[in-house]
Design goal:
Elements lengths: L1 E2 L7 E12 L4 E20 L17 H5 L15 H6 L14 E23 L2 E14 L21 E2 L6 E10 L13 E10 L3 E2 L19 E4 L13 E3 L2 E2 L6 E2 L4 E6 L4 E5 L4 H7 L3 H7 L1 E4 L2 E4 L14 E2 L3 E15 L2 E10 L36 H4 L12 E9 L1
Parallel strand pairs: 1-4
Antiparallel strand pairs: 2-3, 3-4, 4-5, 5-6, 5-7, 7-8, 8-19, 9-18, 10-17, 11-14, 11-16, 12-13, 14-15, 16-17, 19-20, 20-21
Amino acid sequence: MGVDPNLRDPYILNWNLGIQHAFTNNLSLEVGYVGNHGSRLFGIRDINQAPLGAGWCQNSPLTAAQIADACKLGPTAPPKPFNSQAAQEARPYFNSFPYLGFINWASNNVHSNFNSLQVTLTQRASHGLSFTAGYTFAHGLDNGSLNRFGLLPQNSNNTGAEYGSSDFDIRQRFTLTTTYNIPGVKGYGQLLQGWRVNSIYTYQTAQPWSLWDGGNNFDGTGENAYRWDLFGSPDGFRSTATSIPFCNGFGVDPVTLKVTTVSVSCSQQAGTLANSTPLPKSLGDKCATLTTDPNTLKNAGCYVTSDGVIVPAALNHFGNMGRNIFRDSGFKNWDLSVFKNFTFKEQFSAQFRVELFNVLNHPNIANPYGASNFGGIGDTLNSSGTFGCGCGTPDVIAGNNLIGSGSARVMQVGLKLKF
């Protein structure tokens, strides 16, 4: 990886405005606007990206190296294999450094913006009850969030086209933490006193997830960062525990050069169970109607929901899909704990506790590829069986099997002696 010699420290500008109001001695409300702008942020792009169509010998003009070597037999197209040598011979620095392919250049080419409304309601301990409720309505945008963990831009010559919702963007988030010391009655062996209940509830709307075609190289650049064309609303492609319906088996009529759907089959996979469910082949009709290139559709298939379709872009073109236009299923979690305190003598006491994480056993599904999951499962457009599938709970998929990080219901008990 190369580093820009003019690489500078990032520049972050923060601003906020807030008001507070006390309703009583124990109850107060805080409302604030918080924003920031980042410039000169760290980003990576390939400064040696081949031109569109190079891997199919369809870039214009062909380089002298291509004409003499990889492209001497003329242009190709799928189903013939991608010609990586032709792409290599078209790279900008091939004549000077023919042994170099990707030259991933670290520079200050990323910028960001964040704006939010933040509301906090605080109840200090009164009659045994205390709580803090927080709500945030926000939007974060940038043209690169994950630094070295992120994908290359679809077009490294136009990093501004990557500008969209940040990988960490959460539009709405609500949390409620509360503690209640239950009034007690002395006697009965302390069974009716010393009880306390704690609770934490978290709700947040969906985060974006990134995607790319890591194998077809229809754009001809060989970057493996190519995105497809979307027709319809991205809201219909929310990731869940199952994959997004996939259709393949398209053909091309040799006379009319139009798509044929006689052999089309469609299916959907339950990622956690790896079970594939056949779907009506009529789903493929949407793809056949909207595709801009029957040949790329024939070779790669398509993804379809009631709200739209995703089809491969025309050969030697970038897709129209923006970065981070899809969302996961969001996050909901309720944790609860019950404490019982016993006092035996002035200097000796005991505390028994029962803690429940994800009390309602609500299924939270991992993000296919985003801020909490860099491994990626349903993030590649050429993985027909799992595309759009979270395929597990966040704790397992992210390799972070800790209580409270999105697992199924967990219960634990504890006893603490103090003397």
